[in-house]
UniProtKB/TrEMBL annotation:
Cofactor(s) it depends on: Zn(2+)
Superkingdom to which the source organism belongs: Bacteria
Organism: Svornostia abyssi
Pfam (any one): Peptidase_M20
Domain Peptidase M20 dimerisation: residue ranges: 183-277
Keyword annotations from UniProtKB, A to Z: Hydrolase, Metal-binding, Zinc
Record protein name field: M20/M25/M40 family metallo-hydrolase
Length: 376
């Protein structure tokens, strides 16, 4: 392993648990401005003192401004490190960091404050080699977990030489370190039904049953589910709300579905299959979240080969179904690599955790990829 990687991976790992404890100690669910501001203050305090601190408008209204930590250098290359500070778990269920053997348990540990800790460590490591970059930026957004509008930062960083995103890392089936270079496109489909209420015993046929209409819409969505098909489409109805009383024909309701595929066009086809009305109740479909896919396998292959040589062990190109902000940058920054964070599990769940033993090895992977991105 390259000496620079060995040295700085050890430094990052030695302080990672303390840094993670500070970030996880703050409850910062999407949309909570005070929580986001506290997490941003901690992240800025953990950043290199040489980094220029800027706040950028968040892509989602009424969220705290995003944080940009810009590290200027004297070279020519520009590299973007990427992460998010918002979490899914609300304040009432938030759990601060708890060490239990190799498990670092806590809300947001693996998604993705553990990755933020490693990204900050990589930026600090780059301090001693300013001639290799014109700018080594770290962007931490506050709305990744529930953004329904357009992503606002793509144009600002278009043309950068590399984008490294620190979502959770993983091993492949043989136990090799893996990074993510391919992700599906994702869409969240909402279907609203508009019917007419009536007494379900005395005059049921005078009503227009919104629940039955939504059930038909759910079946129409599920009929497109084809994970083994050419678009690898998953179409899964996930939440249904309809009706207010046991003896009234439901007049309204709402269905939510999760859609993932290799292309957004496959997702649009599912939306187009929703009928206009069922049994007199009208259906109104809308896409709430629309995330592009990512396929950087070809463009990142030389980069990962150089990084593997510097690391002294293979770094495997892998794919993942979940959405990530890396997908937004992949179209304008061909060398986009994701999954550089620590390994763990339980994202968005009570058992969310990071594996402490993965911190030094994943720090080394991230450093190797950053080094390869800055030097040929």
């Amino acid at each position: 392993m390259d000496d620079w990687i060995t040295q700085h991976a050890d430094v990052i790992a030695r302080r990672a648990v303390r840094d993670l404890e500070a970030l996880v100690g703050v409850s910062s669910p999407s949309g909570d401005v005070p929580g986001a501001e506290e997490a941003i203050a901690i992240a800025a305090a953990l950043a290199p003192t040489e980094a220029e601190v800027a706040r950028l408008p968040c892509s989602t209204p009424r969220h705290a401004p995003d944080l940009l930590l810009r590290l200027p250098g004297t070279g020519t290359r520009r590299i973007l490190l990427l992460g998010h500070l918002d979490t899914v778990i609300g304040h009432v269920h938030h759990r601060p960091l708890e060490v239990a053997g190799d498990r670092l348990n806590g809300s947001g540990t693996v998604d993705m404050k553990g990755g933020v800790v490693l990204a900050l460590g990589v930026q600090r490591a780059l301090l001693d080699r300013p001639a290799d970059y014109a700018s080594a930026d770290l962007l931490l957004v506050c709305d990744e977990e529930w953004r329904t509008g357009d992503f606002g930062h793509t144009g600002r960083f278009a043309g950068y030489d590399a984008c490294l995103c620190f979502e959770a890392g993983e091993h492949d089936a043989e136990g090799h370190d893996a990074v993510i270079v391919r992700r599906k496109a994702a869409g969240t489909l909402r279907v609203r039904a508009h019917g007419r209420s009536a007494h379900s015993g005395a005059s049921p046929d005078d009503g227009r049953n919104a629940l039955l209409a939504l059930a038909a819409a759910a079946q129409a969505v599920a009929a497109h589910h084809a994970p083994a098909g050419p678009e690898r489409l998953t179409a899964v109805p996930t939440v249904l709300h309809s009706g207010d009383a046991f003896n009234v024909v439901p007049a309204a309701g709402e269905l939510t579905c999760d859609l993932r595929a290799d292309s957004l066009e496959a997702i649009d086809a599912v939306v187009g299959a929703i009928p206009d009305e069922v049994g007199g109740a009208t259906l109104e479909p809308a896409i709430l979240r629309r995330w592009p896919g990512m396929d950087a396998r070809e463009s990142t292959a030389p980069l990962l080969a150089r990084a593997s040589a510097r690391l002294g062990r293979p770094i495997i190109a892998a794919e993942r179904g979940g959405a990530s902000d890396a997908s937004h940058f992949a179209a304008t920054i061909p060398q986009t690599v994701d999954g550089l964070g620590p390994r763990g599990g339980g994202a968005h769940a009570p058992h969310e955790h990071v594996l402490a033993s993965s911190l030094p090895e994943r720090a080394a992977v991230a450093l190797a990829v950053a080094d390869a991105a800055l030097t040929d």
